[in-house]
Fold this sequence. Notes:
Elements: E1 2-6, E2 11-12, E3 17-18, H1 22-36, E4 40-47, E5 51-55, E6 58-64, H2 71-82, E7 91-94, E8 108-112, H3 126-141, E9 148-151, H4 154-163, E10 171-174, H5 185-191, E11 199-203, H6 212-225, E12 230-234, H7 240-246, E13 253-256, H8 263-268, E14 272-275, H9 285-292, E15 296-300, E16 316-318, H10 322-334, H11 336-353, H12 356-378
Parallel strand pairs: 1-4, 1-7, 4-6, 7-8, 8-9, 9-10, 11-12, 11-14, 12-13, 14-15, 15-16
Antiparallel strand pairs: 2-3, 5-6
Helix pairs in contact: 6-10, 9-11, 10-11
Amino acid sequence: MKLYVIYRQFYLPETGQLHLGGIENYILALSELFQHQGYQVIVLQPARHSFITSYAGIEIRGIDCRGCRGNRKKHALFQAVRQDFDPVADWLIFATDSYFVPSDLPRTIAIQHGVSWDKPGKGSGLLATVKSWLSQRKYLSYVRQCRDLVCVDHNFINWYRTCRDMSPLQRWTVIPNFCLELASHAQIQRKWPATGPLRLLIARRFVDYRGIPLASRVVQRLLQRYPQLQVSFAGDGPLLTSLQQQFADEPRVSIFCYEPSQSLTVHLQHHMVLLPSVGSEGTSLSLAEAMAAGCAVVTTNVGGLSNMVLDQHNGLICMPDEAELVQRLSQLLDTPDKAEKLALMAWQTAQQSFSKSRWQQDWLQVLANIRQRSVGALG
C-alpha cells in the first residue's frame, strides 16, 4: 500500500534538507498518519536531474522536469505516479490545489491551504479590477474538476460558492489546521495569573503580507504608552534586517528564530500574541500554537483566522488597521484579568478544535468515506 504525494518543492537536493514551511510540515504530518496505517509514503517533486532519497521514512523522488514549463511540470509528476498506481490499494494526494491534475484515478485528494490571492496593493481602476478578476478565475479553476478536496478553512469554500456553482460531485471537506503540542493544565496554572508585566509575541514569517510592517508600527506606539512592555519578534524572512534596524536601540524588543519543536516553550514565556496578517491566511498554525499555549490572542479578520477566533470569547479580532490593533492590545495591557480569561478560553478551544488528534481523526474519516465510495465504484 502506497501514498503518493505530489508537491512542487519538498526537499532541497543541494543542501540535503527539507524546504521548511507550513505545507511541508503538513506533508510530514500526513506522512506520519499514513505510515501508522501501514502505508509506504512517496513524495514526488520536479527536479533538474532525477534522484531518489529518503527522509523520516519517506521516499522522495525527484522527477526530471527540464524543458517542462507551467502545467507540464505537474503533469509530468502525475504521469510518474500513474505508471505504478494501484487503484485498489494506493492513494494520491496533491499537496496543493494548484498541482491538482484531473483524472479517473480513485482515491485522489487535493488540499487547499487557504485563499492566497487576497493580498492588498493591487491598485485601483479598471486595469487593477480586471487583473484581480483574472487572478481569482485562475485560482478558482484549479479544483473545478476536483471530486475530493480538503480545505483548511471555510473561507475558500464560501469564496468559491460565491463565484461558481458547486457541482454535486464536489465532495469537499473542511479540516482546520492543528497545533503540534498542547500546554498542560499545570503549565497554564503557572502562567496565569500573570505575576509581572504582560509579554507580547509576534511569531510570523517576516514578509509584508504577514503584516510585519503593520506590527512594527503597532509595537512602536505601544512601547511609548507602556514602559514595562516586553516584545518578541520570532521568525525569519526578507524583512529581518529592516526589523533589526528599527529596534536596534530598543532593549525591550527581542528578535530571534526558534525551531518548531521549541514553539510551546517560547509561547509559554509570553502572555499575548499578535497575528497582524493582511492577506493570504488559512487556519493559521501560528494562531493554533498561541491558543494551545494559553496566550491571549489579537488577530486580524483575514482568511481562516476568523474561523478560529470568536471576538471577546477566545480572543480579539479586528480589521488589519494600526489604530484598531493598538486599541485591542491596549485593552489586554490595561486589564490583565481580561487577558487571562481570553487566554484560558483560547486554550480550551485549542484542546477541543485544534489538537493534532482531532486533525488525524478528521483525516481518517475522509479516507474512510472515499474508500467506501471507491470500493463501490470498482465493484
